[in-house]
Write a structure and sequence with these properties.
Helix content: 55-70%
Oligomer: single chain
Family: Belongs to the sigma-70 factor family. ECF subfamily.
Protein name: RNA polymerase sigma-70 factor (ECF subfamily)
GO molecular function, one term: sigma factor activity
Order of helices and strands: HHHHHHHH
Shape: globular
Pfam family, one: Sigma70_r4_2
Strand content: under 5%
Radius of gyration: 19 Å
CATH superfamily of the largest domain: RNA polymerase sigma factor, region 2, helix turn helix motif
Number of helices: 8
Keywords: Sigma factor, Transcription, Transcription regulation
């Protein structure tokens, strides 16, 4: 397929509108790595990640005829939201979302503020993956997805204060993991 001046997203949408048999393959080839990265922010286990991605792609493929293209980036954002929602739904169903039960645990604060220079993206993702699911989820929703504590609370069915507490604890735990990683490399 030769991409037009309109961009890859619009070309892929047009393939779906034309019922072109290559539409699904083109969409998957173009966006699977990006969507896998999003899913990996929430789902730590590889087999579960693959299940969530499969369910996400099924939803994407079955609902794409209802998608309204609004310019470059709109398809990518729409698919990302499906993957995030599917990931959160999986965490809720598997009861891997112990947010409120962690509020009474003492916070283990690092001795110093860690610098992240010298840590590659893959290693940082692995360190974030070591956080408990509740911590990791709030951290991702707040820092990466840019949601407010009020929005996170609504999505997760918790109080905004709980979201803020989870974020604080996740940052502290991540700081400790970063420091431990750096010490292990010395």
């Amino acid at each position: 397929m030769t991409y037009t001046q309109t961009g890859k997203e619009e070309d892929i949408i047009n393939l779906f509108r034309e019922d072109n048999v290559l539409a699904m393959n083109k969409l998957y080839a173009e966006f699977a790595p990006y969507l896998t990265g999003i899913c990996a922010r929430y789902i730590a286990e590889d087999a579960e990640l693959k299940d969530v991605l499969q369910e996400s792609f099924i939803k994407i493929f079955t609902r794409i005829d209802h998608f309204e293209y609004r310019g470059q980036g709109s398809l990518r954002a729409w698919m990302a939201r499906i993957v995030i929602n599917e990931s959160l739904q999986t965490l809720r169903q598997k009861k891997k979302f112990p947010l409120t039960s962690l509020d009474n645990e003492p916070v283990d604060l690092p001795d110093e503020e860690p610098a992240t220079y010298g840590i590659d993206t893959e290693t940082m993702a692995q360190l974030i993956g070591k956080l408990p699911a509740g911590y990791r989820t709030v951290l991702n929703l707040y820092i990466i997805d840019g949601l407010s504590h009020k929005e996170i609370a609504k999505i997760l069915g918790i109080k905004p204060d709980t979201s803020a507490s989870q974020l604080h604890r996740s940052k502290n735990m991540l700081a400790k993991l970063i420091l431990d990683f750096k010490r292990s490399k010395q």
